[in-house]
Design a protein that fits this description.
The complex is a heterodimer of chains A (113) and B (113). With 113 residues, chain A is an all-beta fold. Helix content of chain A is 0%, strand content 58%. In chain B, strands 2, 4, 5, 9, 10 and 11 form a 6-stranded mixed β-sheet that branches. At the A-B interface, strand 4 and strand 5 of A face strand 5 and strand 10 of B.
């Protein structure tokens, strides 16, 4: 089955370290998103990309950067991790223009100590 | 930007009862309203969605209603079962070329046997 895959699934890192979360998809979707989930705060959009040459900031982009290496790959980087970036991170994809279903990856649980 | 408010944050019902979760949105241009279910330790998955040209949509035990004038929409689950226990998220999108979902903060639904 076509899917959205995130790596790693769990990661513990130290404050100040650079870390990259990776997302790949076999759905053939153009649009990819990175969300952050915190208890009681729901899913908040970090960055999104509508194609390889398009990158857009979401509502909480500070402290994060992204790279769209190919249609199927979208990576999220924390340049200098801090403890309040401890969260569950989800990558998602959607088909294209118009309102369509978003498909989520399994999530990456990141802990910054 | 869009702001989505979701209530209640927690909801506990007895098996067989109905459950209602309500959301309001701020951007009158929003025209797509999906609902996602996230079981414990799993990824969010779409359970039902509604577009602005429709007032109500039903799929077996779940239904969604939309009031564009009041800018609110609701999820209704009838004859609840223990497997309905999960976190439910509403979302809104203005669609088109700038499609991206803004999520509510989620409702933890517990169905007691």
């Amino acid at each position: 089955d076509a899917d959205v895959t995130q790596t790693p699934r769990n990661r513990i890192t130290k404050t100040g370290k650079r870390i990259m979360l990776e997302c790949s998809q076999t759905k053939g979707h153009d649009r990819m998103y990175w969300y952050r989930q915190d208890p009681g705060l729901g899913l908040r959009l970090i960055y999104y990309s509508f194609d390889v040459k398009d990158i857009n900031k979401g509502e909480i982009s500070d402290g994060y950067s992204v790279s769209r290496q190919a249609q199927a790959k979208f990576s999220l980087s924390l340049e200098s991790a801090i403890p309040n970036q401890t969260a569950l991170y989800f990558c998602a994809t959607s088909l294209g223009a118009g309102n369509t279903e978003a498909f989520f990856g399994q999530g990456t649980r990141l802990t910054v100590v | 930007g869009e702001n989505v408010e979701q209530h209640p944050s927690t909801l506990s019902v007895q098996e067989g009862d109905s459950a209602v979760i309500k959301c309001t949105y701020s951007d009158s241009a929003s025209n797509y309203f999906p609902w996602y279910k996230q079981e414990l330790g799993k990824r969010p998955q779409l359970i039902i969605d509604i577009r602005s040209n429709v007032g109500e949509k039903k799929d077996q035990r779940i239904a969604v209603t939309l009031n564009k004038t009041a800018k609110h929409f609701s999820l209704h689950i009838t004859e609840t079962q223990p497997e309905d226990s999960a976190v439910y998220f509403c979302a809104a999108s203005t669609g088109g070329s700038n499609y991206k979902l803004t999520f509510g903060k989620g409702t933890l639904l517990t169905v007691n046997p």
